[in-house]
Give the backbone structure.
Amino acid sequence: MKGIVPLILIAFAAMASILIAEGIFFNVFIGSRAAKEETTRELEILTAVNKIEMVKRGLPHALHYSFLEAMKEAGYNSVEDIKDSSEFVKRINPIFNEYRMASEENIGVKIPGGEITLDISGNQAVLSFSSSGLLAYESEFVKVYDKSSVTIKIVGNSLIE
């Protein structure tokens, strides 16, 4: 019996060593890999949110730019020159659609199709883009959506936020 006790102690010591080595391996190698994957996903979420916010901030300016380009194409110098809002909106749509497509190609954020409306009163215009769809950024790790409607006020030719 006295010869068995040292063998049992050696066996327990060997098993404990194996468990400790396995724990170290798991924590150092596998744990760091899991942490890297988690960090990658967190960075992707931040990137997605930043891209959506960038597009949301850019929408009013893209709408204003589209309005100014349409005025230039029509040969208008001021808001007061616009006589038929619905015909003028037809000029704005293709310009704004170019911005929508460029957003998806260059930034990865899809701006859904929608409707542009224009209300004119003297030298002031209220220009709106509304859509039932959502801004969308989708990747392997994350999908982020947000509202896509925007309304701006233009006085003269200047954007009033």
